[in-house]
Specification:
The protein is α+β, with helices and mostly antiparallel strands. It has 17 helices and 10 strands.
């Protein structure tokens, strides 16, 4: 008689496998649980605040509620890390969130929980094959800043990031007498899949620019401060406009933690772990949209939206006008007079009148870029149109692709020069 023995069951191994398998589900459940708690807090507060008739007291109550919610959002994103840190970076902008949220969440752009030094030291030794003391004159254990971890597989390959950095640096330096932004120089012999060493750029994080201006005793509304802010916005706008519309290959992780302000209002753009390479058809369709927005041409805007592959469903009669407003909200930085925070779900919002059914994945990074520039402009108190700033770059891209005739292109250039002479300086 034969007996069959059952394999021994390793409960610890089984527990670990189940834990790995269900971790995404657990994280998703935790996120929605904590989000529901924040939402419920706001709904309960709405009932409480409705009994207060004094306007000033009501505003003070709202401020305290926003601060309370901001602490909860900060804790949730900080605890869960990774993707949720990215979420905090996206929503923590002056044009999208209450001021209390912005103050709390901006710290996650460059002050996220850091990796223990022991782990970093081990990786450096494994990848570079030497002790730190043999490679570096000085090595600071305390990080200058820390942000979210790499998200999608290619972000873990720092050789890829180094190549992207060098490609963008070369493009910007080749296309300008002086590059609009500084791109750190890569130390090629110290770049591996898990380690990237680059030059140190001394500067002030853009989030702390206001504090730096105050520290120097400069009035933030003075001419020198406003000029510096305009130069910063102009540099970033030009760099992103050239990358997106002229090259198609661009820095795709636009948030304030990746921007440093150096001497003389120079701007440094950091972190090239996420880059996008727009296909020519999308790049040129977007160039067409930018020209249409700058020209305030609703019919061409509607055509460009369709050419971009953005699927929509209209719920209104004046479809072209609402489509134009929607395109401005999505792809331009200019806000209506007196508006500092977007209200996408307000009754008169174009998003409620024009439903977006399809949106190309490649355009999300373009969308984030526009919203970064808008958030910075609101924070600096400067309202401007990136579409108007990008129009010459977009027209040049269309001209070189044969989509703008020689006569038409030269006529547009002459017209811009003429109006430039008519406009007052400053």
């Amino acid at each position: 008689m034969r007996t069959q023995t059952m394999p021994s069951l390793d409960l610890k191994d089984l527990q670990e496998k189940l834990s790995i398998q269900f971790r995404p589900l657990q994280r998703s459940f935790e996120f929605w649980l904590r989000t529901a708690d924040i939402y419920a807090g706001y709904k309960a507060f709405q009932v409480r605040v409705s009994f207060e008739k004094d306007v000033l007291k009501r505003e003070a109550m709202w401020e305290r509620q926003h601060e309370f919610a901001a602490d909860k959002i900060y804790a949730m994103c900080s605890d869960m890390g990774g993707f949720f840190l990215k979420v905090a970076q996206i929503i923590g902008k002056p044009d999208l969130a209450p001021a209390a949220w912005v103050r709390r969440l901006v710290t996650l752009c460059d002050q996220a929980p850091a990796t223990p030094f022991g782990g970093i030291q081990l990786v450096l030794k494994e990848e570079l094959g030497q002790n730190l003391n043999n490679m570096f004159e000085r090595f600071d254990v305390q990080p200058l800043g820390s942000a979210s971890i790499a998200q999608i597989g290619y972000e873990f390959d720092f050789v890829r990031e180094a190549n992207a950095m060098e490609r963008i640096q070369h493009f910007l330096y080749e296309n300008n007498k002086k590059s609009p932004v500084l791109v750190p120089r890569v130390l090629k012999n110290l770049a591996t899949r898990r380690v990237l060493v680059m030059e140190y750029i001394d500067g002030t994080p853009i989030l702390k620019l206001g504090d730096e201006i105050a520290k120097r005793g400069i009035n933030p509304d003075s001419k020198i401060a406003v000029t510096a802010k305009r130069n910063i916005l102009q540099s970033l706008t030009l760099a992103y406009g050239q990358m997106i519309l002229k090259s198609g290959f661009f820095h795709a992780d636009p948030h304030p933690g990746n921007i440093l302000i150096c001497k003389g209002s120079e701007v440094a753009l950091l972190d090239y772990g996420q880059v996008k390479d727009l296909p020519d058809n999308l790049r040129l369709a977007y160039a067409n949209l930018i020209v249409s927005l700058a020209d305030k041409n609703p019919m061409r805007v509607s055509e460009s939206i369709r050419e971009l592959g953005i699927g929509t469903f209209s719920k209104c009669q004046n479809e072209q006008q609402e489509m134009f407003k929607l395109a401005e909200t999505l792809f331009d930085t200019k806000l209506p007079p007196g508006v500092t925070t977007l209200q996408p779900f307000a009754e008169d919002s174009s998003i409620k009148k024009i439903a977006v059914l399809a949106f190309p994945e490649e355009l999300f990074s373009v969308l984030r870029t526009v919203h970064l520039l808008r958030g910075l402009s609101v924070g600096m108190g400067i309202n401007y149109s990136c579409a108007e700033q990008w129009r010459p770059i977009a027209e040049e891209a269309l001209y070189h692709a044969g989509r703008l005739k020689d006569v038409e292109f030269k006529s547009k250039v002459r017209k811009r020069r003429f109006f430039r002479r008519l406009l007052p300086r400053g």
